[in-house]
Amino acid sequence: MYSVKEAFYTLQGEGGQAGRASVFCRFTGCNLWSGRERDRATAACTFCDTDFLGTDGQNGGRFRDADALADHLTALWPVQDGAGKKVATPYVVFTGGEPLLQLDEALIAAMHRHGFEVAVETNGTIAPPPGIDWLCVSPKGATELVVTGGDEIKLVYPQQDAPPERFQTFGFNHFFLQPMDSAPLGRRESHIGATVAYCLAHPQWRLSLQTHKIAGFD
Predict the structure, then answer these.
(1) For tag attachment on the chain, is the N or C end more exposed, with fewer CB atoms within 10 Å?
(2) Is 199 marked active-site?
(3) CATH architecture, domain defined by 2-215
(4) Is 143 among the catalytic positions?
(5) Exposure on the CB side of residue 20, measured as CA atoms within 13 A
(6) What phi and psi, each to the nearest 5 degrees, are found at residue 69?
(7) What 3-state class would DSSP assign to 145?
């Protein structure tokens, strides 16, 4: 059984795959925060701006097995010509909350059977199943990572307990800093300036902006 908050077709807004057409599948639940405001101050991650509670979002629901969810997600990908041929390689992004609480080898295999590349955005505290095509780790606070390599690390900046120096020797192909957005407007602007300055001073890191917010798409 899989519990999905929402699923939708859009463009990837962040990181190394920014601008790519994608089906997003947001699982319910997280191991670093309950999702309830009353628990935010004591959570391992205090700045999350995502609703991952329940299954009441767009195309959300409970799915009995991997094939049922894979069929549901595949239906969100557009048919691009009259012959039914998919011109671009279909791409699905599993996110949350924390997707690795639910994503398993069976669902990855089911998406591959439908021709999809499979991406995951995880906080890095749970070992991933095999078969993932694009692995993005976004560390949160002082939590200990069990995933120290992959396609990209996307670090929200600044975090007092997660300075970039802590991760600079990890085995990722791409290193991104993303300005923290869950803050009042003045602080948000200062976060962008600080992130730009850090990337200029430490060119191992590249700037990642939330282009879906800038361009106004979900």
Answers:
(1) N
(2) no
(3) Alpha-Beta Barrel (3.20)
(4) no
(5) 18
(6) -70, -40
(7) coil
For this structure, is 49 an active site residue? yes
Instruction: For residue 10, indicate whether it is catalytic.
Output: no
Q: Which 8-state DSSP code applies to residue 129? A: P
**C-alpha closest to that of 146 among 127, 129, 165:** 127
Is this model's pTM higher than 0.85 or not?
yes
Torsion of Cα atoms, 79 then 116 then 76 then 124, to 10°: -150
* Paired sense of beta strands 149-157 and 206-207, if any: unpaired
User: Which is the catalytic residue, given 25, 45, 136, 199?
Assistant: 45
Alpha carbon distances (Å) from 207 to 4, 38, 136, 169, 210:
30, 32, 15, 18, 10
- Could you give the strand order of the β-sheet that contains 91-95, starting from the edge strand earlier in sequence? 61-63, 2-11, 21-27, 91-95, 117-122, 134-137, 149-157, 171-179, 206-207
- As averages over each run of 10 residues, the pLDDT of the chain (218 residues) reads 98 96 98 96 92 97 98 92 72 98 98 98 98 98 97 97 97 97 71 96 96 76
Q: What is the maximum span of the chain, computed from C-alpha positions, in angstroms?
A: 54
